[in-house]
Amino acid sequence: MIDRIEDNLTFTMPLTLKVHQIADRFRQQQTDINKRKQVYLNTLAVQTVRSYLDWLGIETELEASDSWNRVAQALTDTADLIVTNKGKLECRPVLPSEQTCRIPLEVMLDRIGYVAVQFNQQLSEARLLGFVPSVNVPELPLDQLHSLDDLLEHLEPSEQDEVVQTPVKLGQWLQDVVETGWQTVEELLGLSEPIWNGGQPQLGWNMRSAESEQIIPPEVEFLTTRGQLIDLGTVVENEQVGLFIGVMPTNTSKLEIWVQVRPTGSQTHLPQELEVMVLDETGVAAMQVESRGTEFIQLKFSALPGERFGIKVVLNSINVTKNFVI
Asked: Which tens digit of pLDDT belongs to each residue from 142-156?
């Protein structure tokens, strides 16, 4: 239901049984009682905002949002909803008696805006109270919210918009949840044997310490591997290379990440001057190697849940970047 209070557009919707069932499923995946309540309310808020944007025909990517990621739910207080080609909209829950909207420190960055969602006492109804494009305080007074009219204007597409690439969630690969477009080695190259090579010295890099190490031959049966073709344009005869990512759990909370770039088709070696970079979450190259016509490039590093990185493949004026999150 849409109405206006004090000249501000608001939106109210019932919280159906299905909405509560989804929230309860995420809640049960947590062990701490406070975390369970947090995840439950965050999930209700995100679903409310998504329903409102769906009703307006604004495309969202719910399953790609951190709020829909079990690992991210456990590590952070996030209620984000990715708006296609825009970015992350934070959907903050507000309880009936509260006069402020709480903004956790970890969501004060990397957001295109914040929507306050207030529930009634029975959690049977939710109301979108308003929106702000940015925050700099942990408690935002509700009377400082802008109208939802401003949110719609804020989300309107513009010619300057760049396509937002949703990061690939590598942690989900271990649960056999793989994004569309990532194929097995056999599907991509027609190979049934493992592609990973631990027998020769390779560069190694730890995302947190940036220390070099010697790659140890992996237990490849524990590696979850998927690949994509990378189009290098028309500047070289072999226009595509294969980018393969392997994910392997360890005895700690870290995951080992294996990266390999290989030639495809009839080519046996990578193009001269092909570069592969590992970018940190700020976009800075923390690891870089050039092929010089080698058979393949292979890199390894480790990262913690929630960490982000990018893989950038460069040849002459052509460059392609793929973004990932653990």
From this structure: 999 998 888 888 887
Q: What is the pLDDT of residues 184-227, one digit of tens each?
A: 888 877 766 566 665 333 333 333 333 333 333 445 556 788 98
The total of other beta-carbon atoms located within 10 Å of residue 283's CB is: 11
Q: Where are the beta strands (DSSP E) in the chain?
A: 2-5, 8-14, 60-61, 80-83, 87-94, 100-102, 113-119, 125-132, 139-141, 168-169, 224-231, 240-249, 255-263, 275-279, 285-290, 297-303, 308-315, 318-325
Q: Where are the beta strands (DSSP E) in 73-133?
A: 80-83, 87-94, 100-102, 113-119, 125-132
**Entry pTM:** 0.50
Quote the distance between the C-alpha of residue 118 and its chain's center.
26
User: pLDDT averaged over the chain?
Assistant: 81
Place of tokens 């190697």: 289
At 125-134, the pLDDT tens digits run: 999 999 999 9
User: Three-state SS across 144-198?
Assistant: HCECHHHHHHHHCCCCCCCCCCCCEEHHHHCCCCCCCCCECHHHHHCCCCCCCCC
